[in-house]
Every structure is written in C-alpha cells, then in structure tokens.
C-alpha cells in the first residue's frame, strides 16, 4: 500500500499520527528508487494527491533535481559591473583611481580567482608581495579598499553571499608640509603678479587646487565678503567639491581686497588665462613651483597652501570644528591632524579643573 497512517506515542504519552507516502519507482535504466515521506497535507486524500505528484515527478525526472546555482564570477569578470556601479556613484577622479589600482595591482593578483574563493591567505600574500615590490603601505591600503568595495558591490547585487573581510595595513599618520607665517609672506611677495591673487586666496580660504581652478564669479560675493565652494574640476571634468557638498567660506580682508583688485572681464572663471579659459593643472603646478623657488622655499604644491591655511587657524586658537567646516572635511578625524599645532589645547584642558576644590 502506497499511502498509510502511522501512529506513535510521544514522550508525554500522547498518541500522534501522520499520513505517509511510500512509493517505489523503476527508472528506464532499471534502477529502483524508493521514496518515503510524510504528506504535507495530513489527511488520506491529501496523502493520495501527494503520492500522485511524487510519481509524476519521478516519471518526468524532476524529483529531487536542484536548480543549478549560478556560478560566482571571477574578480576579472565582475570588474566591468563594478566600474559601471562606480561610474554612477563616484567622481571621475575616484573612478580613474579605481581603474588604475585594478589594472596595476588587483587584477594581476586576484583576476582569475572566483569572488568567493578570495580568502584571507590570498590577501595576506598580496600585501607581502606588494611590500616586497616597494609599494607604499598607503598605496597598498588604497588597493585593498577598492577590493573591499568590489566585494561589497558584489554582495549588494547578490553575486556574492557575503562580504569577505579585508584587513588593511597599519599605517602611521603621514606628515604634512605647511608654511610658517613668515614663509607665507615671502611666497606671496615673490609670486608673479598674475599668480599672486590665486596664492593669496588659497592661503586665506583653504580651497583645493581643483576648487580654485573651477571658481567662478557667480560664487563670489564681494559685497558680503564670502564665496561659495560649489564646483571642482579634475582633468577637465567639472563636478561638485570633494564629499559632494558645497560650503561657504568667509573672505577676510586680505582675500577680499585681493579679489577686488583682481576683478576682470575675461569670462566666468576667477582665475583664467588671457582668453578667459580655465587654467590647466600643469600650468598651476609649474606656477607654484616657480614661485616657491623665487621665494627661496622648498618645492611645494597647492595643497601645501591648504595645509598652511588650516595650520595658521589652529595656531591662532580657532576651534577644530570651525576649521573642519571651512576645509569641507567629512569627519573631524581628518581635521585632528592639525590639533597638535594649537598652543593652548593642553593648557586649557587642565585649567578646566580649576575652581572645583570641594565636593565629590
């Protein structure tokens, strides 16, 4: 009999029962398969229907056949999906950096591995190899961050069941260069007239090079004495500033006077060439190098002027939170590297306990 009622006693002594199906089926190759299962519908009629379904499944060859799981792609095969995602969600500069790290480091090491086969040992081997090649720990971490993001995107798109752990190298906080107040004055004095205003504005607003190049007169209010940082340019690609947010920067007397004297009618860009076109990166890089050489200073880039702006503020006692907002840092941790320049931060900290001699 293919359908029967089974009865048994539970540990508590209660009688329990269930309808079971017992089916023997002979396949065309002579193999006999026996299936014994409890009916999902616990009645005779439900069990009989379940028996018919089982026999039909056995006859059609669909019983106990699992759908083939989609094969997890290799890192190389998933790269295009990852870059498509990045192009939709990242700036052009970030996308270019990811491409470079993938092509130069990640794909040669992991490209032929399936996403779910990249394990901790593979990642540690990658670190050791790159350190042996002399790659800076910061660059290695940049590559590992891209790999971790690639895993996260694969998991989000349900290509990977989970995000593997990617442990970064411990890296000391890098030193940054900044000008003393006296060095900043020497740089401005030695700069050619056509570059002096741009250097002064950089020293007194902390704008990045791409933000300076993309700055237009519609974002400068010479009456109210402020400017709005709402554009950035990188290799000809105009977009929002780093972090994707605009910020307002007040103009002090030095920057305001310099911009008023610099006002021109050559076009929309505040700093431009003779035709009114925006300045190119190489042109700006060479200009600051020449100015620093004329001033008798070490070679530097525009980011040194941004560091100088922040350092001078902290040295004059400006709160770090205000410095963070002026620089457009996403987190206070990025601004904390300037904290040691504050002359009174530790002194003010211990003074907070003065006057509290009684009580608990």
UniProtKB/TrEMBL annotation:
Every Core-binding (CB) domain range: 73-155
GO biological process entries: DNA integration; DNA recombination
Annotated Tyr recombinase domain residues: 174-351
Keyword Nucleotide-binding: no
An example molecular function term from Gene Ontology annotations: DNA binding
Key word DNA-binding present: yes
Keywords attached to this entry: DNA integration, DNA recombination, DNA-binding
InterPro entries listed in its UniProt record: CB (IPR044068), DNA_brk_join_enz (IPR011010), Integrase-like_cat_sf (IPR013762), Integrase_catalytic (IPR002104), Integrase_recombinase_N (IPR010998), Integrase_SAM-like_N (IPR004107), Tyrosine_recombinase_XerCD (IPR050090)
Family assignment from sequence similarity: Belongs to the 'phage' integrase family.
PANTHER family in the record: PHAGE INTEGRASE-RELATED, PROPHAGE INTEGRASE INTD-RELATED
The protein's name: Site-specific integrase
Organism: Cystobacter ferrugineus
């Amino acid at each position: 009999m293919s359908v029967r009622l089974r009865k048994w006693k539970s540990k508590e002594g209660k009688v329990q029962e269930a309808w079971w199906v017992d089916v023997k089926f002979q396949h065309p190759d002579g193999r006999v398969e026996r299936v014994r299962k409890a009916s999902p519908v616990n009645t005779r009629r439900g069990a009989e229907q379940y028996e018919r379904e089982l026999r039909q499944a056995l006859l059609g060859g669909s019983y106990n056949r699992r759908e083939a799981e989609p094969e997890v792609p290799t890192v190389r095969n998933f790269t295009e999906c990852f870059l498509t995602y990045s192009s939709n969600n990242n700036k052009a500069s970030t996308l270019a950096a990811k491409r470079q790290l993938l092509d130069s480091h990640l794909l040669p090491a992991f490209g032929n591995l399936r996403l779910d086969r990249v394990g901790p040992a593979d990642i540690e081997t990658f670190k050791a190899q790159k350190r042996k090649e002399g790659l800076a720990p910061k660059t290695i971490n940049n590559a590992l961050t891209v790999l971790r993001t690639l895993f996260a995107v694969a998991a989000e798109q349900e290509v990977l069941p989970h995000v593997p752990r990617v442990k970064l190298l411990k890296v000391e906080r890098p030193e940054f260069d900044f000008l003393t107040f006296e060095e900043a004055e020497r740089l401005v004095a030695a700069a050619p007239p056509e570059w002096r205003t741009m250097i002064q504005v950089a020293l007194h607003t902390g704008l990045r090079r791409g933000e300076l190049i993309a700055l237009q007169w519609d974002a400068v209010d010479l009456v109210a004495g402020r400017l709005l940082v709402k554009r950035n340019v990188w290799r000809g690609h105009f977009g929002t500033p780093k972090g994707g947010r605009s910020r307002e920067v007040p103009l002090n007397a030095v920057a305001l006077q310099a911009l008023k004297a610099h006002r021109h009618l050559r076009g929309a860009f505040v700093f431009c060439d003779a035709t009114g076109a925006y300045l190119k990166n190489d042109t700006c890089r060479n200009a600051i190098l020449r100015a620093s050489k004329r001033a008798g200073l070490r070679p530097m880039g525009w980011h040194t002027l941004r560091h100088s702006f922040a350092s001078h503020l902290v040295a004059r006692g400006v709160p770090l939170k205000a410095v963070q907002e002026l620089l457009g840092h996403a987190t206070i941790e990025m601004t904390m590297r300037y904290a040691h320049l504050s002359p009174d931060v530790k002194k003010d900290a211990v003074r907070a306990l003065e006057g509290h001699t009684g009580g608990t």
